[in-house]
Amino acid sequence: MTDTPPSVSVLTLARGRDAHLRNVILGLTRQSVPPCELIIGVMQDAPYDDLPDTDFPITQIHVTADELPLARARNTVGAAARGEVLVFLDVDCIPHPDLVHDYAAQTRKGDGLTMGEIMYLPAGAAAPGWTIDGFDAVAVRHSDRQGPPAEARKRCEDYRCFWSLTFAMHRDDWAASGGFDERFEGYGGEDTDFGRTLQDKGIPIWWVRGARAYHQHHAHCMPPIHHIPAILRNTEIFARKWGHRTMEHWLHGFRMMGLIENGPDGLRILREPGPEDFALCEQRADMPYAATGPVIRFLEERERRAARTAQDGDTPPEGTMAEWHARMTREQEEFLAPAAPRIAAE
């Protein structure tokens, strides 16, 4: 006698991103084991229409606020789910046909939280008519993210590695976690706080092989200079709760860019990001993902150059931004080698 697979609710959050959402739903219609439902936390006034037809119900629940209510929206869709296993999937992540099956197989009561594989797509890869074979030909892994384990699953020992792009929990473990802290509003911090909460409660986090999702290309910045006010607010909430700040690598980058400072009354914004800052941090069409690490290395090297220039009395070198763009491209190409054919941006 074989065990009956648990029912799976897929949960996503969306504001805008209509094309991304349609691709997520198309991916769910092609699952080897279909979900019992899709629940969308709609973080905008208007509901989504013209969605693909499905054999499972789609429920839209409005969760709106001036800033992205990510923590509250996840709690809301989690509370509404009726499946035994809750699969949270970001709206920019297209599921592999076995994602629901893999999460159902790896996520049972008492297992804690499981995290599947993420692959990153270049611009144009998710155009109409996309296929999983097409994705596998061009998708790449993120250089800053853990790859899948050799075994079926591996314990994640560092709560800071939790990333809400895609994860699953049995509904009883989700209830035991207490959900996300709704004091976090806007971008940043709620993921790390949730991971820390799981650690504090003794709820394990696992990397699992499979449960793959494909991250759709969209323009954004790393470090996220377009979300500085929310990040500063949320890191202080985290510090009051846990005794230390989070997102320190982003804060370090903001400081070196002259965007913020740490004063006697805490972090404060010095200036708004300008064109040069966005040119440094934004994801270009030829980059499958943006990453904070290379930007930090560039900023630290620029500081060392400036210090040497001040000491020697020389003129600062020209073309440092162009040099960075060239090095950024080289680093990604070296990481991705042997490089697969890339899809040109539309």
Explain briefly what this protein structure is:
By secondary structure, this protein is of the alpha/beta class.
Folded structure, characterized:
With 346 residues, this protein is of the alpha/beta class. It has eleven helices and 13 strands. The protein has helices at residues 18-29, 70-80, 99-106, 132-138, 171-177, 190-201, 228-242, 248-256, 275-281, 292-312, 320-336; strands at 8-14, 37-42, 58-62, 85-89, 93-95, 113-115, 118-120, 153-155, 166-170, 205-208, 213-215, 260-263, 266-269. Helix 1 links the parallel strand 1 (8-14) and strand 2 (37-42). It is globular, with a radius of gyration of 21 Å. Mean pLDDT is 89; it is low at 335-346.
Q: Unreliable runs, pLDDT <50, ≥5 residues?
A: 335-346
- What topology, given as strand order, has the largest sheet? 3-2-1-4-9-6-10-8
How much beta, percentage-wise? Answer: 15-25%
The CA-CA distance between the termini, in Å, is 52 Å
User: Which radius of gyration do the C-alpha atoms yield?
Assistant: 21 Å
Order of helices and strands: EHEEHEEHEEHEEHHEEHHEEHHH
Give the total of beta strands. 13
**Percent helix among the residues?**
25-40%
Q: How does the overall form come out from the CA principal axes? A: globular
Structural class: alpha/beta
Largest sheet: 8 strands, mixed
Number of helices: 11
Whole-number mean pLDDT:
89
